[in-house]
Amino acid sequence: MASKYTLSFEKPLQELEEKIEATKRTALERGIDMSKEIEGLESKLEKTAADFYQNLTRWQRVQMARHSERPYTLDYIERITSFWFEMHGDRHFADDKAVVGGLAEIDGEQVVIIGQQKGRGTRDNLFRNFGMPRPEGYRKALRLMNLAARFNRPVISFIDTPGAYPGIGAEERGQAEAIARNLMVMSTLPVPIIILVIGEGASGGALGMGVGDRLLMLENTWFSVISPEGCASILYRDASKAEEAADAMRVTPQDLMEMGVCDRILPEPPGGAHRDADTVAATVKSILMETLAELKEIPPEKLVATRVSRYERLGQWQE
Hints:
Distance between the termini: 61 Å
CATH topology of the largest domain: 2-enoyl-CoA Hydratase, Chain A, domain 1
Number of strands: 8
Strand content: 15-25%
Radius of gyration: 21 Å
CATH superfamily of the largest domain: 2-enoyl-CoA Hydratase, Chain A, domain 1
Structural class: alpha/beta
CATH class of the largest domain: Alpha Beta
Number of domains: 2
Largest sheet: 8 strands, mixed
Order of helices and strands: HHHHEEEHHEHHEHEEHHHEHH
Shape: globular
Number of helices: 14
């Protein structure tokens, strides 16, 4: 049986799991009752895993956020919506497959959903550009947000990207302008905007779809203006010091809650969201609807004013 533990720091749990499997094989091959031994090992694995995942380092949470089996935007959309109509293209250049968006219905509530989408496997990742949006992706999202404002539909944005695509073509087509325009429009969009970080939230690639009234984060995610590797390359001139950079940057949901950036942390099962995607999706749906009901009670003018004020308060500076 293939182990479900794939990250290097999960090796102690993998070894315990392998011991359980070996004990089961021995019991089967020799025809002896080892149920008590197996039960004890399974109980130990469960307790060890619970303690282990509650005390992950920042760098380990970054690795968890990048796990190739984590649910992506379309996985959540499939599980939480009763209606989904995907829309394509930015009406200017092309359809960016790294960004998905469209009209949706969740428990009778009509919304607009946008999100970054990674791929599974090499071919799909190339198709999705590894979840790195180009300018047309941000302009597709902008088109959908303007549509949401026109028809008074709340916006839900799923964040999961290693950053905006840094290629020459993207720069030629105005990557920085596309992100900046989204920041400007999202700050004053007269409908509720909920941002949910489901994996990586890196750099302007995340911020270009990450301005809203509430920032929710799954437990094993991260959100920052640059990746730990990028920060380490700049500050320490050594990308291998990414773990040290992650600690200095304070990128986890718990850190961002303390700094007033994150509004709510959504729990994941021990081992990450990929261990039980259905349960995590049910949690996401419940909290999204709860947050949406709260935001819909706020008049548009006050909603925008509060949103602007929220971002004005972030950070510290000296004159």
